[in-house]
Amino acid sequence: MSESDPKTRQRPVQWSPATTPETKPLPPSSWAKKTGFKPKFSSETNAGDSGQISLPPKSREHDTNSDLEAGRLKPPPPAVNGVTHREKVPPLPPSKDLVPKKRRDSDGVVPSTNGQAPAEQPARRTARSEEVVGSLPQTVDDDFFVTRHSHMKYELRDSPGLVPIGVYGIQHYVSILGSLILIPLVIVPAMGGSHEEISSVVSTVLFVSGVTTLLHTIFGSRLPLIQGPSFVYLAPALAIINSPEFQGLNGNKFQHIMKELQGAIIIGSTFQTFLGYTGLLSLLVRFINPVVVSPTIAAVGLSFYGYGFPLVGTCLEIGAIQILVVIVFSLYLRKISVFGHRIFLIYAVPLGLAITWAVALLLTEAGAYSYKGCDVNIPASNMVSEHCRKHISRMKYCRVDTSHALKSSPWFRFPYPLQWGTPVFHWKMAIVMCVVSLISSVDSVGSYHASSLLVASRPPTPGVLSRGIGLEGLSSVLAGLWGTGTGSTTLTENVHTIAVTKMGSRRAVQLGACLLILLSLVGKVGGFIASIPEVMVAGLLCFMWAMLTALGLSNLRYSEAGSSRNIIIIGLSLFFSLSIPAYFQQYGISPNSNLSVPSYFQPYIVASHGPFQSTYGGLNYVLNTIFSLHMVIAFLVAVILDNTVPGSKQERGVYVWSEPEVARREPAVVSDYGLPLRVGRLFGWVKWVGL
């Protein structure tokens, strides 16, 4: 059995001051010293060469003996006549109240911090320092170094056996199923695609997701993160789909727009690849912190408020059931465990979809949506009966037998590159996608950091970070060549799935990716997914976008969320991310104008009527489109304010990354992030994309 076997792994131990001899203080082997990190807290503390945080000459009244970087108690100061310089009375004997305590949330997951021990607050008016190491899942090694994630069932390098790996791999993908399949169900109908084309795109998405996940876990960041179509790409894709030049297309509209999307994605992804593999991202990452990542990701979810419930309202009884069932499973039944698995929390989306689909099928078979003399396959414009025109919407959105995708899809289909034709390249759409790829990189930075705290021995180095982003760019190039309609990037929902399932094994994700590739070759699978009623898709998207918003805001736990500085920055970022795009989207539209697109697509036609109206049409398109994207505005406001408004690193929650020189000397870090098959030696000279 390997050393990574969870049965032989070090178990959590509680440390008490009584267990340390007073005559032998703790060695200065803090996390900061091991990684070479030298914090400089502005106007608060000074950092010595050892990485230990030393106090300024005039210490604060409520200062504690905790080491922020090491996550442990500092050795007591030398005593004079038996009394330390901080205490005028002899210390009380150690009691059980001084033992560090683990605090768990309602889901049983230990809250995490920014790769450090939790920042101390000025005493609970008595002693908040009693919980110095209590915010992370921890163990204490022989050097009194605090390690984390002891609550995980399987960590990054664990390989418990084929059966457990297979079970957990399938569980991981099923729990994140909504993020994989829902985007094609939105963009393909918007492009005028048929049910058969939806089926083909879904199969392609599953195939590309499996391939890129394998590439990322082997040659990218090597963290157990699923790659797939991100919601970051959804809004710009809809903006391109609703461009003015595509409004008059009739024949082959789907293929024409798909080729335009492919060209834009390939160029934007090439820019992301350049950003990663040249090491430029390691320079930019110093400006990307939790206060920047949080509103940027949250704005992605909030930006679709105009799409979600308006489409649910087309068949309110079915859509409302879909939303309520998922909410009940994920919140009210989340603590129910079956055979050690919280099935309702982990499988809330697929279980909710199955139950709602069954209810809709019963209503359809019972004749609830059948109207005498009316045929759902006849266009509303050709219907003579006023009675049928009145009920055509309910027949179209509420019935579950209107799609023929499952019957028409083949049993075997192999997705291949350029299946929709040769990509078409236009510089104005490519620039939009370049900006989007930068936002996607910001999203991935937050996911890398959060997942590394759960499953890895240390956070990645800036080089590993750049390598992961570079490979994500290559993955999106593959997505563009195969024609998925969006780029391929790290799904934000990964972090939530890892925390809930407590499964961080890289091998499990790799095995799941292989199974996903095999599944994509079965054409009936894509046909089955393509036959999901549109109103159910909208109901699931309401939940997924709300979850994405919450996951974005959860990044604030790495900073001082109660700081007035951070609160104002987050508030301004979120408000302007909604208000400024609304100005662009509403500019030049009269209240009584009759637009050719549905109301939920109107925010994405801004290129034709935005406030930028210069003589250069391409420039107008780029500026009007970019400034109508909520996530772009949130990122710009947050990154400017967070990097110009004064604040300490502790207050800002600056991400802590491992130092390359120290990481290369630690076998655990090399095993976590080092490239396999001696590939690392071939590229050892490229210091900015490795350990």
Automatic annotation (TrEMBL):
It comes from Cicer arietinum (Chickpea). Keywords: Membrane, Transmembrane, Transmembrane helix. Its main location: membrane. This is Nucleobase-ascorbate transporter 12-like. GO terms for molecular function: transmembrane transporter activity. The lineage of its organism: Eukaryota, Viridiplantae, Streptophyta, Embryophyta, Tracheophyta. Residues 1-133 are annotated as: Disordered. The chain crosses the membrane at residues 198-219, 261-280, 311-332, 344-363, 424-442, 508-529, 535-554, 566-584, 621-641. The keyword Transmembrane helix applies. Belongs to the nucleobase:cation symporter-2 (NCS2) (TC 2.A.40) family.
